[in-house]
Each structure stands twice: as C-alpha cells, then as structure tokens.
Amino acid sequence: MKKRVFRWLWRGLLLSITLVLGVQLWFFAHLFYWRDNNPSSTRFMRLAQSELQTKNPKARLSHTWMPYERISIHLKRAVIAAEDSRFLEHEGFDWDGIQHALEKNLTSGQARAGGSTITQQLAKNLFLTPSRSYLRKGQEAIIAKMIEALWSKRRILEVYLNIAQWGDGIFGAEAAAQHYYKASAARLGPAESARLAVILPNPRHYGRSFSPRLQKRALRIRSYMGSTHVP
To answer: I need a labelling partner for 123 at 20 to 30 A (CA). Which of 80, 87, 145, 227 fits?
Structure first.
C-alpha cells in the first residue's frame, strides 16, 4: 500500500514538474518570437477588452504600434525616470527597490508594493494578471529573466512603451498621445511626456483626473529627465 501511494505521489510530482516546465517553455517561445516580431495583443489587453465588452459588446481597445525611433525621446526619458531609474544598469531586478517593497509589504501585512522594474512590468503585462501575490511575482521574475536574456534594453523599452496601459482601453504611447493631446507620440514634448509617465502606476484612475499631487510629481519627473539616459 505504501509503495503504491509513493508511486502515485512520485508520478504526481513528475507531472507537476512537466506542466511547470511546459508553461515556462511556452513563455520562452513567445518571447523568442517577439524579439523580432511585435506582439499584436497582451494578457492585459485581452482582460481590458473583455471588461469593456461586458458594458458594450462593440467596444474596442485603442492601440497603434509605434516604432521605437518614432517615439519621442522625451517620453522615453520620462518613463525611465518615473518607473525605473536604473533601467540601463540592472538585469531585470532593482534589488534596492525590491527590499523597500518587501519592507513596506511586511509593515502593511499585504503584498501591495512590488518594487517592479520596467522589465518586470513588461512580463506582467504580456502574460499575467493585475492580481497581487508572491506566486505571481515569482512567475513574473522568471519571465523577466527570460526577457533580459533574449532582448536588448532598446527592445524591452520599445515593447513596454507600445503595450503599457494609459487609461481605460488605451494601450501604447501612440494611443495615449492621441487620447490626451490629439498628437502623435513622436511629437510629445517634456511636459506632456512627464504627465503621461506619472499616469502609468494607476492609469485607469489617474487618467481620469490629473490631481495637484500628480502635477507635482510630473514636475519632479521633468526635473530628472535631462540626466536620464535611454537605450
């Protein structure tokens, strides 16, 4: 009887390992393809569209891909300054940021702060969900390492700027620029870029009302942009 139980447990363990490895291979294959090909959709986009269509079945996302070289240098600098100042230095993780986030989470008793880099946010947006848990953060970390191994920093920033959410149903820099400023992402100046960058942490809320607190943060981000380097 004990031997039979042991065999079933062993088979269950092998099956679990096989499934986990299969999922990681699926992620890897997509990232390898996207190294040279642009993703047409992401998990976050599909979730957003599904939510919009519960209210209006004909609703569609606003999203237009913009090549890296045509995106304003000001927006690139603003996003790095606001979201990940050590983007060019780290290999997917900002350990100081992670430590600060862990301390904040332990204090609050909940997994609220993530300490996420642009690479981690990209991993989440491409494949995962907005849910907050250590299991999801672990999967996010694995995908982030794959991204850093397969893609250049320039490609990481290009894809992030094109798939990041900037409001309800608004994805990517071009759609954001058109929605908020009736202009192309190529023509964004420093002020507009800083305002877009500070929306990113909570686009569905911040995109509706630009408060004095956000304005103050946008001014602070703008002051950092001159010394921010981009790939």
So the answer is: 227
